[in-house]
């Protein structure tokens, strides 16, 4: 249990019996009440992914390498757009994948279930598909530049 889970209230079905619902201040404790709290929750999620997900850090390193290569090879504005699109789509897919994996693990109580495995495999497949797109973009952007650098 994480340190921030110590005041966690787990609701049971009986908490909602006879039309009872948790009080507004209990429900709102984890809600975004304004733009700054929304931003804080979002940044916390991104930071958590970087800290806890090895693949997120690998994607970040790949993105930094692509940016450095783009600067080195002086890529065009259109190429920059495709590079940034690829980098951010991979990050987004990895964030979704991590979120899905965490929710599935929670729902399955860390036990093996074939449906849980399928959900996690599909989420990982989405990351693979968009990573393949990023590789194709990298090939289109950098292979001509590398070829020109080596042979001219």
UniProtKB/TrEMBL annotation:
Keywords: ATP-binding, Cell membrane, Kinase, Lipid biosynthesis, Lipid metabolism, Membrane, Nucleotide-binding, Phospholipid biosynthesis, Phospholipid metabolism, Transferase, Transmembrane, Transmembrane helix
Positions of transmembrane segments: 59-75, 81-100, 121-143
Membrane topology listed for this record: Multi-pass membrane protein
EC number of the protein: 2.7.1.-
Subcellular location: Cell membrane
Domain of life where this protein originates: Bacteria
Signal peptide extent: none
InterPro entries: DAGK (IPR000829), DAGK_sf (IPR036945), UDPK (IPR033717)
GO molecular function: kinase activity
Family: Belongs to the bacterial diacylglycerol kinase family.
The protein's name: Diacylglycerol kinase family protein
Species of origin: Lactococcus nasutitermitis
């Amino acid at each position: 249990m994480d340190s921030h889970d110590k005041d966690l209230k787990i609701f049971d079905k009986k908490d909602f019996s006879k039309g009872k619902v948790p009080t507004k201040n209990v429900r709102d404790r984890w809600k975004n009440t304004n733009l700054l709290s929304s931003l804080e929750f979002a940044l916390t999620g991104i930071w958590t992914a970087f800290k806890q997900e090895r693949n997120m850090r690998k994607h970040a390193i790949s993105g930094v390498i692509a940016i450095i290569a783009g600067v080195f090879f002086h890529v065009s504005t259109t190429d920059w757009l495709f590079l940034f699109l690829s980098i951010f789509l991979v990050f987004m897919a990895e964030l979704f994948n991590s979120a899905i994996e965490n929710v599935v693990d929670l729902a399955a109580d860390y036990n093996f279930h074939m449906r849980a495995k399928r959900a996690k495999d599909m989420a990982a497949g989405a990351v693979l598909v968009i990573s393949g797109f990023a590789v194709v973009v990298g090939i289109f952007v950098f292979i001509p530049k590398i070829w020109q650098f080596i042979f001219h």
